[in-house]
Specification:
heterodimer; A: 822 residues; alpha/beta; Rossmann fold; 3 domains; five-stranded parallel beta sheet; 21 strands; B: 441 residues; alpha+beta; OB fold (Dihydrolipoamide Acetyltransferase, E2P); Chloramphenicol Acetyltransferase; six-stranded mixed beta sheet; four-stranded antiparallel beta sheet; 10 helices
């Protein structure tokens, strides 16, 4: 809580009541005749056309899925197709007034939204711009396919381009919008403002908030529409995203033109069902979804239910809500009522609803109704509508022909290029700043109190006589992280950092002390305690082109951001087919002393998921160099820190931590102490216990260990370790992670494969016990200790003459523990 | 027409032989029966004669080459004839140096035809050795099956091979070179395991640059070295000493010698008589007439007596099969024949395998040795050393102390196979057999 805001007990303790204003429900009540001033005949006809294109496109998909045939073309599509037949008016109405600068995010059922936004963008863009977009996208690969034999204007060509790119993507063709790596549930096309759909229900709920944050912080025009389903209203990420988006500070603490609400519309495409569960009357309790806005903020999120079966009602709502966004009074919640005729997926037998219900909705079918309205009002004749439909069928047929032709639309050839997907997992960029311009700061870097204080510190642990410098005088690991972070804040104007207690407090472990003085709210702020949204918004922010550091205060809280860390952050670079970059650093602090829910090292969990870079520095020099590398890169980096060692001085790098900028390449381990008889590979803080173990080995048994600090988990260059193992023939691996399933087990297994002939004993992993982390007073029985390392060496690798083991590392004990699962 | 000369197969277990010397050159004319080349197996040396008259057209292998048996070694025919078709398949018929070493070292395992395959395989499987130690053993030529493991659970690890190799290598190379160069023939006492001499045991005087000669040891020397070292490393052997009153035996010997000098009757030696007594003792107490197989003991019904024979090529221990079927004359004659064939190098290699004998006798009495600790030929569980005869004061009857000739007996036995009491009982039985010798002469 910032000091400038006073929480006055007199005020907050006063008696009173909360009053709510009315939430409009289906208030739109205009006829075509009423709207003639707002729409030209062409506009009306285009609305109908767009709805028809979407209907036909999805009808085709439905036939392909259920009958393997459309218009005489046979094809088997084994992948997903979650259709929204019936919902076309909602999609077209939503997209109608959006500009090219407005971004939409979607769900697994978003084909309609993609096409609607694409068609709207094509209408708005001039021919020159359209050609430029088509020519530049994948070097014109898609354009060349649809251009061949095309007769008609550029807009027609662009429609062909849109339909083909989407369908080829659904069919997993390399010529799709995302090289076939996204597919039906993830297709998108950023040049038209179409951002990723998301196969995880509610997945866009917090990511799109990050996109809105990006718009605001970087003063970009446009708003964000977060298209999610009614059932996602139950999901954590959606609530966390809404909480994040409605933080008071946007209106109270952010300054100048940054002041004001986030430019985002949470558009719930409310078709009343979450797969087979009825949200109205069964699985939710809101009765009318728009009610949810009432509880979030005094503006009640400007919530409204609108009739998604009338495109004009939706368009009307968007025009009104845009004004709210432009007035910086967002965010907005829309409950767009709609209904899907198609099943959740083609395998859906609709066992959860009656035929009568379905037919009742079909009575009001928006395409038929809107067509009738147009003919009644003599805007278009039925013949022309029929001709339009014929034209659309031939367009869809042509698109299907092209998209299923293997010679034109091949799948990615992994025989020819086995690394085709591998090379898309990371972008491996090196970019100083993600946005041009001067970074905003409140003072010159040299005047920053922390920077000035650090100038007085000793940057190496020992003085010139080799004596340790007093702790208070030394530069610490937390200072290394700080220096890299503040350096980047003064280089990259797009960089923002947030998390819990990041501002004022300076982070729970004083890493950010000094940043508050340097940066305005729009670059450093406190987030709600919502780890899902902390990471999810960072993903959206990075996806749009900004650089961000999000902080998870304790590693244990990573579980709260599980979907974001496991399903979103690692996936989007590759799933986009190299369109999206993800310059997102997640700082994760591994705790100790605080027991079972505040002391876990979960680095193994994130290392397991492809698509994340994972580092865990253990010295100030490495912390600064790796943070610099992470902040110069364009990939998601999970940056682990250990609370045990925030205060360690630099003991290894000659000359101490350099004052200037340097990077340590991610993925390169480092020898911290040379030795001959056994290699010890450490991750994180256990480096220091390994050093102590080596002291014991040297003094008591005349054995010297070569101690290698992994520094990174992913990527990881084995060469240095293998070289050491070839020399010593023995390796022990240790970290604070629980030993079962530890990433080091994976490393040990890989070393066994790569250096089997050189091994004098099996690689042995010494991790924490497979228990809860007990209280601080008992931690020595849980976390690996120096004597554990010595005992494990004695028992498993190299019996030490005269050594009496205190800890049980025998083979039988290992079997027993595994048998019990502890 | 050209014909090939092949490397003969000397015994079932022989896979390769080493050509020791060629006596004929390529292009030289040869007669049938001319010695073409000499060669040796692990245990014996042979000469190969020319099968036909003709010209030695081609020689495929040189002195020192190890050649797989039944491989073409040379071609004899008429000048100008094509020898191409006799070219041994691939030049790699010469076994690579590295693998020669390993092949030889695994010999003691392979050359145990009498051990059931299952037991042998099981034994192999039980060896626990790290990949690194195994590779090092192969590189250094260390027979890792004989190395004692000090790793977890007794696993042989790098340091075990290193220490083995250090001892082994130091003696045969550095230490022996230095010792040779100093011209010292006095036995050196070593501080290494099993009495091995370390370089540090020797004086540090640097020998002159060229006042010594380094000779590669022969194949047989190497095998002896390995087997003896393996025996001391791989078993629990110890020696008991005892003496037998030799008066009766000497009386017989005097009679026999006198008789043999006059007619052609067999010249039965003291050694023959002792062997005769040993055979009887073995029949009576068969516990030591056995092979120790690690997890089983194989006790023989018959006595196959190993007899140590000193030859100028080194120690050989041929077996006299079914020695318990022989009377003293037969025994004497067969032992003579066997020793002779060893010295000539024509002994059947099968008889040289340590598994061919059930028990061994080694006699150093002729050298004046008064007491020694013979080394067991594994997997046999005992060996009897015969010492010289010394005069000792003894009660010759009626309380009179006089000098009596006693012959020394040194029994080394493998404590893994039997304990001290039965071993001592056997030794006493040998003594009794000698003292109560009854010969029909």
């Amino acid at each position: 809580m910032p000091k400038i805001q006073f929480i006055n007990p007199k005020e907050v303790r006063k008696a009173g009541k909360i009053t709510f204003s009315d939430i409009p429900v289906n208030q739109y009540n205009k006829s075509i005749a009423d709207e003639k001033n707002n729409f030209s005949n062409d506009d009306f006809i285009r609305i109908l056309r767009d709805m028809q294109i979407i209907r036909e496109f999805e009808t085709m998909l439905n036939l392909i899925k259920t009958t393997n045939e459309y218009q005489g073309i046979s094809y088997n599509h084994p992948g997903p197709a979650h259709l929204s037949i019936g919902q076309e008016a909602s999609a077209v109405g939503m997209a109608y007034s959006l500009t090219i600068e407005d971004y939409i995010f979607g769900s697994h059922r978003s084909h309609g939204e993609i096409l609607a936004k694409g068609l709207s963008s094509i209408h708005q863009l001039d021919d020159k711009k359209l050609m430029e977009i088509m020519k530049n996208y994948f070097d014109g690969t898609i354009l060349k396919i649809v251009e061949k034999g095309h007769k008609g204007d550029v807009k027609d060509l662009a429609i062909n381009f849109l339909l083909y790119g989407t369908l080829a993507e659904i069919f997993a063709r390399e010529t799709g919008f995302n090289k076939g790596l996204g597919g039906s549930m993830h297709a998108f096309f950023t040049p038209f403002g179409i951002y990723p759909n998301n196969a995880i229900v509610g997945g866009s709920g917090d990511i799109s908030v990050g996109a809105a944050l990006y718009k605001k912080v970087n003063r970009k025009p446009g708003l964000i529409v977060c298209n999610i389903g009614d059932a996602s209203a139950a999901c954590g990420p959606v609530w966390e995203g809404i909480s994040f988006a409605t933080m008071d500070q946007f209106k109270t603490l952010w300054e100048g033109d940054y002041k004001g609400g986030l430019p985002i519309i949470f558009n719930f495409m409310n078709n009343m069902y979450g797969m087979g569960g009825q949200t109205f009357g069964e699985t939710m309790g809101y009765e009318i979804l728009a009610r949810l806005g009432a509880g979030v903020n005094p503006e009640m999120m400007h919530a409204e239910r609108i009739d998604g079966y009338n495109p004009l009602a939706v368009i009307d709502a968007y025009k009104r809500k845009r004004k709210i966004i432009d007035d910086k009074k967002g965010p907005v919640l829309l409950d767009t009522l709609t209904y899907r005729y198609s099943g959740h997926s083609p395998s859906d037998a609709s066992s959860y609803r009656t035929k009568e219900e379905l037919e009742a909705w079909m009575e009001y079918d928006s395409i038929k109704w809107f067509g009738d309205e147009l003919t009644t009002n003599k805007i278009i004749s039925q013949d022309k509508i029929d001709a339009m439909k014929e034209q659309i069928i031939s367009l869809i047929t042509k698109t299907l022909t092209l998209a299923t032709d293997k010679s034109i639309s091949p799948h990615m050839d992994l025989n020819k290029d086995p690394d085709a997907i591998g090379k898309l997992m990371f972008s491996n960029g090196s970019v100083k700043k993600m946005e041009q311009g001067e970074p905003e700061a409140l003072m010159p870097l040299s005047e920053n109190p922390r920077v000035k204080q650090l100038a007085t510190k000793e940057r190496f642990a020992f003085d010139k006589d080799g004596k340790p410098v007093s702790k208070i005088k030394t530069y610490q690991l937390r200072d290394g992280i700080f220096e890299a972070v503040i350096d980047r804040f003064y280089k990259d104007p797009s960089l923002v950092a947030y998390g819990e207690e990041n501002r004022d407090w300076g982070g729970a472990f004083a890493v950010y002390r000094g940043l508050t003085e340097a940066l305005p709210y729009n670059r450093l702020f406190n987030s709600p305690i919502a780890e899902g949204a902390i990471v999810g918004t960072a993903i959206g922010y990075g996806m749009c082109g900004g650089r961000v550091i999000a902080e998870i205060m304790y590693c244990d809280f990573l579980g709260r951001s599980g979907d974001e860390v496991f399903n979103q952050l690692p996936k989007w670079q590759a799933m986009s087919g190299d369109i999206i970059k993800m310059p997102v650093v997640i700082r994760v602090s591994v705790g100790s002393k605080y027991g079972a829910q505040h002391s876990q090292d979960w680095s193994s969990l994130v290392a397991h998921v492809p698509g994340l870079k994972v580092v865990f520095p253990a010295t100030p020099y490495d912390a600064k160099g790796l943070m610099n590398a992470a902040l110069q890169g364009t990939d998601p980096v999970i940056f682990f820190e250990s609370q045990r060692i925030y205060d360690v001085p630099e003991m290894f790098h000659e000359g101490g931590v350099p004052e200037g900028y340097y990077e340590i390449p991610i993925g390169e381990p480092d020898i911290k102490r040379k030795g001959d008889d056994i290699t010890i590979l450490t991750i994180g803080a256990t480096l220091y216990n390994a050093l102590k173990a080596d002291d014991i080995l040297k003094e008591q048994y005349g054995i010297s260990a070569e101690i290698i600090d992994a520094r990174s988990l992913v990527p990881f260059n084995y060469e240095l370790v293998l070289e050491s193992v070839k020399k010593t023939g023995k390796i022990l691996l240790t970290s604070d992670a629980c030993s079962r399933g530890s990433y080091l087990k994976d490393v040990a297994q890989t070393i066994t494969e790569l250096a089997f002939d050189y091994l004098d004993a099996p690689p042995v992993v010494v991790g924490s016990r497979n228990w809860i982390t007990p209280a601080f007073e008992l931690e020595q029985y849980f976390f690996p200790q120096p004597d554990w390392i010595v005992d494990a060496i004695h028992e498993r690798i190299l019996p030490l003459k005269g050594h009496q083991a205190k800890n049980n590392f025998t083979v039988n004990e290992e079997i027993r523990r595994n048998k019990l699962g502890v | 027409m050209a014909i090939p000369v092949i490397m003969p197969r000397q015994g079932q277990s022989v896979e390769t032989c080493i050509i020791t010397q060629w006596f004929k050159k390529k292009g030289e004319a040869v007669k049938k029966g001319d010695v073409l080349f000499s060669y040796e197996t692990d245990k014996a040396a042979f000469e190969e004669e020319s099968p036909e008259e003709g010209t030695l057209l081609e020689i495929f292998f040189n002195d020192g080459d190890e050649v797989p048996v039944l491989t073409n070694v040379a071609v004899i025919g008429n000048p100008g004839e094509n020898t191409e078709e006799f070219q041994p398949s691939g030049k790699n018929s010469v076994v690579e140096k590295e693998s020669v070493a390993s092949a030889e070292e695994t010999k003691p395992e392979e050359a145990k035809p009498e051990i059931p395959v299952e037991t042998a395989a099981k034994h192999t499987g039980e060896i626990s050795i790290s990949p690194r130690a195994r590779n090092l053993a192969e590189k250094l030529g260390v027979p890792f099956r004989q190395v004692a493991g000090t790793g977890p659970g007794g696993r042989i690890i790098e340091r075990d091979v290193e220490s083995y190799a250090k001892l082994h290598g130091t003696f045969t190379r550095l230490a022996s070179e230095i010792a040779t160069s100093e011209g010292s023939s006095a036995p050196l006492s070593g501080s290494g395991v099993g009495g091995r001499v370390l370089a540090s045991d020797l004086s540090h005087e640097t020998p002159g640059a060229d006042d010594f000669e380094i000779k590669k040891i022969s194949n047989i020397r190497r095998i002896i070295a390995q087997n003896m070292h393996a025996s001391l490393q791989g078993s629990a052997q110890l020696t008991h000493h005892m003496s037998a009153d030799a008066r009766k035996m000497l009386e017989y010997r005097a009679k026999i010698k006198k008789k043999a000098d006059t007619d052609d009757s067999p010249n039965i030696t003291l050694n023959d008589m002792i062997c005769y007594g040993v055979i009887k003792a073995l029949k009576k107490m068969p516990a030591i007439n056995a092979h120790f197989l690690g997890d089983a003991i194989k006790t023989f019904n018959k006595v196959h007596l190993g007899i140590a024979v000193d030859t100028d090529r080194g120690l050989m221990v041929p077996a006299l099969r079914n020695a318990d079927d022989m009377n003293i004359e037969q025994l004497s004659a067969e032992l003579k024949k066997l020793a002779e064939s060893c010295r000539k190098g024509s002994v059947n290699p099968e008889l040289l395998a340590s598994t061919a004998a059930s028990f061994t006798v080694s006699n150093l009495g002729a050298f004046g040795v008064e007491m020694f600790t013979p080394v067991i030929n594994l997997p046999q569980s005992g060996i009897l050393g015969i010492n010289t005869i010394v005069q000792r004061p003894a009660d010759v009857g009626n309380g009179i102390i006089g000098f009596v000739p006693f012959i020394g007996l040194s029994l080394t036995y493998d404590h893994r196979a039997l304990d001290g009491a039965p071993a001592s009982a056997f030794l006493r039985e040998v003594k009794l057999q000698i003292e109560n010798l009854e010969l029909n002469i």
